[in-house]
Fold this sequence. Notes:
The protein has helices at 91-98, 104-112, 119-133, 158-170, 185-194, 202-211, 269-278, 305-315, 328-336; strands spanning 8-10, 18-20, 23-25, 39-41, 62-72, 80-89, 141-142, 174-175, 196-200, 218-219, 229-238, 243-251, 254-262, 282-290, 295-296, 319-323, 344-349, 372-374, 377-383, 389-395, 398-400.
Amino acid sequence: MMPVRDEMACAVCFVPLNVFNGEYGHPLHYDTDGHQPVPAPVRTLDTVRRVCDFCGDPQSAWAITGGNVAVLGVGEQGLLQDLGAVWAACVPCTIDIEAGRAGAPAERAARRAGLHRDAVARAAYRALHAGFLADRRPGRTLITTTAWPDLSLDARHLPRIRDGLARFCRGPLGLAATTTVPSRRTDLADSLDRARLYWVDDDFTGMAEAAAPDLPAVTATSNLAPCDDGLLIWSRSIAPRGITAASWTRHDNATWIVLYRAIGGGLRDEAMQALRDDAGWLAPIRDQTLHPGQHLGEGGNHPLSPVLTTWLLIAQGAAETEPAAIDKNVRRKYERAKRPLPDVRIIHIRSHHTTNTGSSRTASSRAYTSRVWVTGHWRDQPYGPGRTLRRPVYIHPHLRGPKDAEIKLSTTVRILGKQKPDDVPTADVPEADV
């Protein structure tokens, strides 16, 4: 068997690269804008625009290792295309392969290509797949870089979502080495067992998403996180990385944070159930350990900015919580397992939280004769002994000036709330053991 190459993708378009005569290149079927491939190891990217190597489905879930297949093109150039020994598989193809239906992915590929009536094409697909699967190695690895359609995870099911992630961490299936989680799976699972569970509602998620890009530099402290162990899920994924959830655990004043994306959006019932049984609802995409005094100078550009922003907003009193009603099926499963039902807290914007006092003067005694719009922004707030320390505090958008004063007109259109998209599906949470 040929040595396994380090999988590469183009850093410009995020498409996995094939090897042609020893050189990396875009897949022949991929229509680029003319740019040259810029190879980057897949393990360094948050998102990769890969398709199922068996049938072409745009949502790949598992990486399977088999024979290192190469295809020789017959023609003047005699082009040799190395397809590699690690193939991506969608959930339906994975189900068929695990069930011994090796011919089913070939039929699916032919249908997707519009060649389902072409016996020669179907035979070619079967031969290609057979060459790869003949040397298939046991196991498979969860692909964490697939950008799944957005999926709304409901607070009522958060205990089941937590348990699915912990079960996967303790299970035999592989996890891509894009984070330190593969070497710390037991630590993560144990932390999830202890975790306090938070679900951030849509308004608070919108506020955090709006504030995160402008987050200034942050200095980590031992009490930056709201508790020692936690799992927090936003009502929808947060751009630009598509982060849906974060977990953390604090040990010896250091805080290990893991970021996740939601997986399985758009799958049909059988495929959805299979993915939930195998991997759950969340896939880790980034992690970092913060130590007290560590300076995060990237601010809003840092991958952790969504969770840091959410923590800071909670700490400054912008949030209040209420208990979530847990799904009755989840409650029954916990009762049968004689497990205490965890407390899930819904985080929403504090009803009367406001930065504007209604005063016509600021701290600098500036008088206002009209009300003016102040956009949301961060400010360094003194705190600690002698008020010598600083931490970012978010100033919410507000009208500044006397309550009865005229509002100064502006041509700027301001959106004061976010409407939840109608086309975002709610997570399909099938029955599963907890």
